[in-house]
Amino acid sequence: MSTDNYYIEKELSWLSFNERVLQEAADKNVPIIERVRFLGIFSSNLDEFYQVRFADVKRRILISEEQGGGNEAKELLIRIQQKVLKLNQDFDHLYNDILLEMARRHIFLVNERQLTEYQQNWLKKHFVSNLLPHITPIILTDDMDVLSFLKDAYSYLAVELKKEGEATRYALIEIPTDEIERFIKVPEPKGKRRRKTIILLDNIIRLCLDEIFRGFFDYDSIEAYAMKMTRDAEYDLTNEVDHSLLENMSDSLDQRLTALPVRFVYQRDMPQDMVKKLIQMLKISDLDSVLPGARYHNFKDFIGFPNVSMKYLENPPLPPLDSADFTVFDNAFDAIRNRDVLLYYPYHTFRHMTDWCVRHLSTRKYAASASIFTAWRKTAVSSTP
Predict the structure, then answer these.
(1) What is the per-residue pLDDT across 158-175, written as a single tens digit (0 to 9) for each?
(2) Which of 79, 299, 307, 342 could form a disulfide with 43 if both were Cys (CB 3.0 to 4.6 A apart)?
(3) What is the pTM assigned to this prediction?
């Protein structure tokens, strides 16, 4: 019996691990808000998988084709895509189930078509006052290098503007989650205070497309569709032996800005003409993963999904733990002089590390640095889970 039967490819093993994360989101014994957050963890993990593992398989295929080798890597790529497609389908079904579970607890995650007139008016005012300054639409032209400015693993809205007798215009809008929370709590009218309504930033932008484009373009209809691109972000720190580790890491991070995509996810009801145009502009190859998806992308933001209702809908926060290897000594130096100490984060408090660093700076008479570090320690300790 071949020993190959004892092993499976590490990429498929990794996807099976992430499938177990999805199973945590499906577990009805887990509080409902935590189940939503597990969806975010699954999505964040999958982003990293494509940036590193999938990109490595694609690179192996290209090298194999140049050398006239076998098709093992290409067969693995097909199996990966089949597995991911199945996981995405499970994710979509699970997401809808969780929405129903939250609705039973009077928490509603709505889209722009499910708002009352009162809520629409409130959101339009909120958009003009607080959100519009962060919105920068980009009109797509045939000679534009989209890859030079499109950010990796960010969610975008691809906008279609149609005018009878004229060519269709396309634009991209970045969902500005760097500056604005992605989840907005919408006020309820009197008499419905028990109901908690949340809307995604994506849907507020969909609701207010006219506020963005009106006056700049004349159009008969305007529609927006979600899309997301993931770049090859593989680190290669071994080639430049004459460079320091810091220099090699810096070069690898810079490469992320210009690396070619390995995955393109788009809203499944996006018009095919728009899909083809975006694939062409993003230079998507046959080896890349092109996946139709649901209405929302970048689910990693759901790791921070807010609990707007009862406390029992999420797990209570765990206090940081002191390490007994430190507490039995007067200071950190005595502790590490006695023995090596292994700390587990985020479970152990970060105070042991900051105390050691401050004392180390102080003993070297770096008073200015120590005072700066002390100020930072207060921030770090206050933010420790």
Answers:
(1) 999 999 999 999 999 999
(2) 299
(3) 0.79
